[in-house]
Amino acid sequence: MKAVISSEWLKLRSVTSTYHTLGTAALTVLLGVAWTLYVSGMADERGSLRAAAPEQGFLPLVQISLTVLGVLTITSEYATGTIRTSLTAVPKRGTLLLAKAGVVGLATFIAASTILLVTYSTSRLLADGHELGFNDISLAHDLTMLLASGLSVTALALVGLGLGTALRSTAGAIVSVVALLFVLPGVVNYLPPPWNTRVAALLLPNLVPQIADQRLSSRLGDGLLPPWAALAVLLAYPLVALAIGYYQLNRRDT
Fold first, then answer.
1. Could you tell me the CA-to-CA distances from 57 to 85, 111, 120, 253 in Å, in that order?
2. What domain count does the chain have?
3. What does the pLDDT look like over 53-78, one tens digit per residue?
4. Which side of the chain, N or C, has fewer Cβ within a 10 Å radius?
5. What is residue 214's DSSP assignment?
């Protein structure tokens, strides 16, 4: 297993797409600086301003960027045909997928947590002395949100890996994750109450604030799930996606 993981690390480091996706995710830091400077200027004019924290406002950019990393980890091998070589070297397909999941999970969690922490720290330094709303929350709450956000990015990257394994299509897997993040929440709004709020509480965009025990919105009310349940739902997404991917990987020939 150790040799398989080392091989997957080597594959991840040796392709340029890895650095492209990490670089795109890292743009969050620059966008956070620009946003903080912009709202700080507005706050100076108005005296105070309620503004979204940049590490939360630009979280979808990190999520989508590193989801692409998870997808490409497997679909690039299908596209180039190197999946045959991988399965020849590692005949146990479950072992191969588990190694890929471990490498993707660790890499995306470290990358996402670093990017979000740098964005958070930079924005708070720039916002010091300005009444912006997001810089007057407790440190414990902020750290919980950062941890939950990092976990959400990791979960989505693993969902991308699982869907990429099942669909064998980069575009199909990415579109599926985009639908989970942006399309499905809009569709759920049209469900009759109280099902709209019950289903919405289980969707990916609403799990991070619930893990941090934060009020979601006036529409959803207080977090409908306790933090432990929201965390369990978040972890269920990659587990289900990887299980589907494993089933399809075993079922199909290369």
1. 41, 18, 11, 42
2. 1
3. 899 999 999 999 999 999 999 999 99
4. N
5. -
Give me the mean pLDDT over the 46-54 stretch: 74
* 8 Å CB contact between 161 and 74: yes
Written as six digits, the tokens of 81 are 């045909």
Name the region of 252 (left: φ>0; alpha: ψ -120 to 50; beta: rest). Answer: beta
Task: Report in angstroms the alpha-carbon separations of 29 from 24, 34, 58, 87, 110.
Answer: 10, 9, 9, 39, 15
Handedness of CA 192, 197, 200, 201 (dihedral sign): negative
193 cis-preceded (ω within 30 degrees of 0): no
CA pair distance 124, 235, nearest whole angstrom = 30
Domain that holds residue 98: 2-251
The total of other beta-carbon atoms located within 10 Å of residue 64's CB is 20
Query: In the chain, where does DSSP find H-type helix?
Result: 2-14, 16-46, 54-57, 59-80, 83-89, 93-127, 139-167, 170-178, 184-188, 195-200, 204-211, 227-251
**Structure tokens given for 200:** 């919405």
CA distances from 236 to 10, 11, 105, 142, 203 (A): 28, 27, 14, 24, 11
DSSP 3-state assignment of 91? Answer: coil
Compute the distance between CA of residue 171 and CA of residue 184 in angstroms, rounded to an integer: 18
Contacts of 128 (CB under 8 A, 6+ apart): 135
Tell me the C-alpha distance between 92 and 77, whole Å.
17
Comparing 5 with 240, the larger pLDDT belongs to: 240
Tens-digit pLDDT profile for residues 144-195: 999 999 999 999 999 999 999 999 999 999 999 999 999 999 999 889 988 8
